[in-house]
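Before the break, one more example. Copy the sequence into your notebook; we will annotate it together after we see the structure.
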Amino acid sequence: MQVLTYLGSLMRAETICNAIIICPKSVVRSWEREANLNLKNICVPKATVTAVTSDMGKAKRKRVFEDAFCAPSKRPQLVITTYGLVSNHITDLTNISNTYEESRWCYVVLDEGHQIKNSSTKMSRDVRILASRSPHTRRLLMTGTPMQVSTNVF
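Here is what the structure looks like once it is written out:
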């Protein structure tokens, strides 16, 4: 709830126009439900909350990402997806098209962020690519387990 309220306040102030939450598949629907309750109904009524799962077709997923990239600050977009989809569709998340030259995620949130602890895994590399697409992308890592101290965690 704190993260969603924080993102909602940034969206309401028109500081950010999009955000992506990457989480385990088992909690996608919980994030979606809480985002609709807290972010959309309380903070930013005009925000769009979309859970991107493997149930969606690839074309629809790509359309959701494109919509998020070109979202105006008055109608911000929150996308919730899984680590697996980020890893499988990293090009859809980073190279939308030349039409969106400024395409980037304003905010990247990792739930269960300890999953990227091993920087040699494909998933860890893909998430880091997503978060480093722009020097202006803000990042938040949520984890319930202690992480090793590292200068390049996320």
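Residues 52 and 81 are 5 Å apart (CA to CA). The chain has a mean pLDDT of 83. Try to locate both features in your own notes.
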